[in-house]
Prior knowledge:
Radius of gyration: 16 Å
Shape: globular
Amino acid sequence: MALLPIIETPDPRLRKVSTPVETFDDALQTLIDDMFETMYDAPGIGLAAIQVGVPQRLLVIDLQEPEEEGGKPVRKPLVFINPEIVEESEEVQTYSEGCLSVPDQYADVQRPAVIRAKWLDRDGKAHDERLEGLLAICLQHEMDHLQGILFIDHLSRLKRDMVLKRLAKARKETAKAA
Length: 178
């Protein structure tokens, strides 16, 4: 397994629409494993293939939620290949989202609270499930990447500009310190 470089905004590759995965081979399995290693190292809870420069409809998620309050995080890695949302609730949920491609920046985003999604897992097995809570939010966030959309695109122009300004300032400070 290998750590992959995570592409950060404003890299134009993040705006590419990803193509469907057609071949389930060893290269795909290696990419999935590398994506998990990269996501855990970052640390994050979701990563789309385009974020590591691969424009394919593939994403990984692991919410790493503890089984009990205050307990140790438990890894439950999930792979979503060629995912699609087939239903979404009218009820929305607001969640403070962040993104490995927009490092250390967070903003409230509204998304459907409940979705029904279809996808293939790493073995090509089909799934069709109703999802809610953080998993539904995370899947929608990562699926946006497959369409070239970042979470900041869901913000007003003013809020988006503020996030990008904070990101630029943080990058300047990091460059000065280096």
